[in-house]
Each structure stands twice: as C-alpha cells, then as structure tokens.
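Possible regression after last week's pipeline update?

I re-ran a chain I had predicted before the update to compare outputs. Posting the input and the new output here so someone can diff against the archived version. Not blocking, just want to make sure nothing changed silently.
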Amino acid sequence: MGNVFDALEERGFIEQVTDDYEIRELLGCDKVTCYIGFDPTATSLHIGSLVPIMALTHMQSHGHRPIALIGGGTALIGDPSGKTEMRQVLTRDAVNHNANSLKEQLGKYLDFDTGKAIMLNNADWLTKLNYIEFLRDVGRYFSVNRMLAAESYRMRLETGLSFIEFNYMLLQSYDFYYLFKNHNCFIQMGGNDQWGNIVAGIDLVRRLEGKTVYGMTFPLLTTSQGHKMGKTEKGTVWLDAELTSPYDYFQYWINTDDRDVERFLALFTFLPMEEVRRVRELTDAELNMAKAVLAFEATKLTHDEEGAVAAWIASASAFNLKTVDSSILPSSSIPRSEISGDLSAITSIEITREEIVTLPLPQLFEEANLCGSRGETRRLIAQGGIYVNDRRIASIDERIIPEDINKRGEIRLRKGKKKYAIINVIS
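New output (post-update):
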C-alpha cells in the first residue's frame, strides 16, 4: 500500500509541511489520526473543498483515521483567511442547519462506520468555553505581534479586521489541542491559507502538553486560465445535486483546460499515477477522451456511479461524444463498448412549452417511448423507477414545471438506470 505521504506528494496535494521527514516517518509506522475543518457557511460544499476531502480519503485508504471537523462553533465567528472583508455573521440556527447538511455530504466520501473516520462539530466544545478562563489558559500563549504577521491577518489590516475575527486563530488552535487531547490527533491539514492557524495550533499543543504535533497544507488551486476552482459564468459548482445537477457537474470537468487534465486526474480521481502521467503524451481526440474519463470519475465520486453513467450518456448524446478507447486510462470504469448501444436507445422528441406543463407524466413517458404504456409508467413510479432530471418521481400526479427545463431548452427523462429520453422544449 505504501506510505500515504508519498502518495499525497506524488499526486500534488502537499504545499507545505512542518517537518517532512518526521511526518513521513510517522505516517509510515503507525495508524495516525488527522483532521481537516470544514466551515458550514452554506448548505453544501463546493468543488474548492475537494482537495481536502480527497486528501482525507487517501489517508483513510492507507489505514489512517481522518476526522472531518464541522466548524459549527468557528462559523459563528468567521475565518478571515483569504477574505478581503468580514464574512457575513450567520445565526446559530443557520449554522446548525448547514452543519447537518455537510455531515450527510461528507459521508459520501468517507467511511464513518466502526470508527474508521470520525465526524465532529467544534460547537460541542467551543460554545461551552468560559471566556475569562479561555483568555487566561489559552490566550496568554498568543503574541499579538506574531498574529499580526500572519498572512490571514496582515492582508486584512488595510481593509479592517474586526475583534471577533481576531479570535479565530485562538479558536482553531484550541480545536487542534482539543482533538489531540481527546482523540489522539497528531496532524492538522488544510488549505495553504490556513498555515498560520495550523502553526499556532502546533505551538499551543507544545506549550500545554509538551508534545509535538504536525501540520500539512495543500495548494490553493486555480485553473491554468487563472480562474478559481469551481467558479464558472453560471456561478459556484456545488457538490449537492440539488444545487448543481450531476449533468452540469460532469460538464464542468469535461470542459477542463488541456493544461489541467493531468493535474486534475491526479488530484480528483483514484486512477493509478502511471496511467495519469500518460496524459501528457495525448493530444486532440485522445486528450478529449481523457477529459471524459476525468469528468466521469469525478462525477462518480460525488454522485455515485449511477449518476455518473447518466451524466455521461446524456453528454454523449447531446454532444455526439465518441466511445472512450479502452487504452485511454484503462483503470477507469467509464462506459466504453456498451455506450453505443445505450446511445442508440436514447430517444429525442420535441414538445411545446405549453404541452409539457399540461401532459400527465404517464402520457409523456409513453410518447417518449420509454414505457410501453401509461400503466407501466404508473407502476414504475410506485416502485421509484421514474426520474425527471435525476429527480425521482414520487407520485403519478406530479407534473413537469418550468424550472425542469434547463438553459438548453431540454428535459431529461429516465426509466430505471439505463433508459433515457431527451425532451426538446420548443416555443
């Protein structure tokens, strides 16, 4: 299985570490607990969170124990890192709602069964601190001069840094101390903008416990075009299917710049690196095939294989994509030889906007040749096998609504896992 440090380094995850020799030795000898914090500032994480998520999955796959820490307490303060102005202060109810949503989402990537990974919420201890005791026991170890020298604070001094944000480093440092003390956590990981906070936590553990813990940061990714990861003209690319559909998620990855394909395959898939490195030799049609593999593998991780297959088939139909040659990244499970048969079975019909919102679903699925009769459609709805745009239909009384029509004027119908139809809505 090898040392996870070497795997992370080879795949491009590591930007800075506090001591690469000692961390490599630690990860090569023992089962180590590490943690990454995720701030619940929205109901979903976005693509920008995938680097830390993937790092935790690599840690788990190598036998280590990740802690996914939901920042329900720190989100009440707001992290100034990487921000030119103060974050909007969220209510406690909003933070709790977002935290519960992120817990469910992270469960798609990490196995939290039988202690293989832990999910915690720092609100469980931060909201119970006595402020005077916290200042006396923890705050006295922090130098204001050193804090102001940290990049996360220094860049905010010109635009204004509130006192509430100034406390953030102390709280994140206390998190590391708490997790070390209560869960034997030895490594904190995070984006490179968290370096100052991580080092401060390491120093706090040393002062309070006399122990050495470690830090690791990841690069803050931008595309080769200089764009922030996960930002498009349409807005943020979310990991929640309700906010960004599997189809649109797939399209984000398949439109990757040629210069980013190898790097993104290394970071956002589990394909063997000897295959990933072959991408630098590909051009033209073969490179486009590699992009399709990237899109499929990334979508499978976030939306499971069924969602990835559906997105691939829909994309192949809509954009006349060709079958991916089996010699291109052979470890990928992207549909290959069978895709031509699936595509030939996809039907495409035209219906006016007025008709689409009035037609009963059983009649629509019959006219789209997905079901042999309206009775079959009703039976499949009862069994949970009928979908509109990956939304499972729960009742035969449901109708198409205008919001189901995407920007290309299409609605995608699905029967079971492999039968599709594209409805082109005309004016």
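Follow-up from reviewer: compared with the archived run. Residues 82-86, 337-345 have pLDDT under 50 and may be disordered. Marking as no regression found.
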